[in-house]
Amino acid sequence: MMDKKTKLVVMRLLHLEHIQYNPRLSKFVSIDDFGTLLSIGLLESVQLDQNEYLISLDSNFRTSILDHLYDVSQIDNVELGIDSGLLEEYYQEKWENIILYLMGEDIRIPSNVKDILVFAKIYDENGLTKEGVKYLLLNDTQKLWLLMKSYVELKFTTINPIEIMRILMEICYIPIGQKRCINNESEAYHKLYYQLSELGLIYIENDYFTSTPLALKLSYRKGVDDVSHTGFIVVESNYQVYAYTSSDAHFRILNMITTVELRLPNMIICKLTRQSIKNAIQVGLSCNEVIRYLESNLHTTMNSLSEIYEQVFDQLRLWEKERNRITYESGILYELQSEHIFNLIIECASDLNAILWCNYDKMMLFVKEEAHPKIRTFVRDMRNKNKS
């Protein structure tokens, strides 16, 4: 039997490659608490330092626990007759349509998906929101979980959120291509599975479903699943960007943050420029968000060339700072002929703390727009007083 602390650590390890046991964790649980599991080989440890270890679960033990937790034993080992390549095309088409819809393309998407996008404040009656613009540059896992969080909150009154999360975790561990029957599920759960298929998480055929490669991204582990992530973007030291993709969605996103020079069937050639960064900032993006998007989609060939793209990214930050050095304020420009009146208006505007710029030699004054009615009244009263 495991105590509560050990159970908690084991449950955390189910979805992690390993954890680093250090003095900070030792305040919560002692390494001796794992003694039994270590002795029978269910836990594995590698000592890094005197008080630091890498602890991981035995792979067979992990698989066994996941099978029992998510009831994978109910999976029918007979395949659906659809290969992983077609399943990947299936979910990519679904997500491509969602992204293109967000960017204003005349594409029909299911009403259920529209409801989720509106609830998540990604989209409204006016189109893509500021949050929606930022959403486009998130990686696939972040995009997916943001929608799933909104979906759980949206369906809170009709389906138990815990059950929705259970199903989401379950489909993460169903081998791609193996089927499970949904014929015996209640009407509410039947509808839930079909809504998940509209998001591309599962593929349904004749009351059976199988997980798609997209479902695996629900259990994405940073640093572990990155190994299989190839990326499609190459950044050169001359700010040239080559994107090896035929996706219309990728093209629209790149067009938002770069200057596209040429589009070929399987490649987009574009360039990072001062103007492209300025345009990205104007639509609500920050330079760091642009950099994160490029970094998360870098081709594996760029791994050994970090000094190249880091120099480029530093320049992007400088371009952003250039823009931040200038502030814009609306106001009213006064050009006067009389030095006496000019000095009186200066005094009035100074009392109102409304002076934005002043040139005494040319008798020109630029004041805040909201102060103009008061200054105009002051000038009119002054003229009336002089006439009388």
Order the strands across the largest sheet as they lie in space: 4-7-9-8
Number of helices: 17
Residue runs with pLDDT of under 50 for 5 or more positions = 223-228
Report on the biggest sheet. 4 strands, antiparallel
Structural class, please? alpha+beta
How would you state the average pLDDT, rounded?
A: 83
The proportion of residues in beta strands is: 15-25%
Helix content, binned percent: 40-55%
Shape: elongated
Number of strands: 16
Radius of gyration (Å): 30 Å
Taking the alpha carbons of the first and last residues, their distance comes to 101 Å
Give the topology, please.
Blueprint: H1 4-13, E1 19-21, H2 23-26, H3 35-39, E2 43-47, E3 53-57, H4 59-69, E4 76-79, H5 84-102, H6 111-119, E5 123-124, E6 127-128, H7 130-136, H8 140-154, H9 161-172, E7 178-181, H10 187-198, E8 202-205, E9 208-211, H11 213-216, E10 233-235, E11 240-243, H12 248-257, E12 259-264, E13 267-271, H13 274-282, H14 287-296, H15 306-324, E14 331-335, H16 339-351, E15 355-359, E16 364-368, H17 372-387
Helix pairs in contact: 13-15
Fold and architecture overview:
- The chain has 388 residues and is an alpha+beta fold.
- It has 17 helices and 16 strands.
- It has helices spanning 4-13, 23-26, 35-39, 59-69, 84-102, 111-119, 130-136, 140-154, 161-172, 187-198, 213-216, 248-257, 274-282, 287-296, 306-324, 339-351, 372-387, and strands spanning 19-21, 43-47, 53-57, 76-79, 123-124, 127-128, 178-181, 202-205, 208-211, 233-235, 240-243, 259-264, 267-271, 331-335, 355-359, 364-368.
- The strands form 5 sheets. Strands 4-7-9-8 form a 4-stranded antiparallel β-sheet, sandwiched between helices. The protein has a 4-stranded antiparallel β-sheet with strand order 10-11-13-12.
- A hairpin with a 2-residue loop joins β12 and β13 (267-271).
- α13 (274-282) packs across α15 (306-324).
- The termini are far apart.
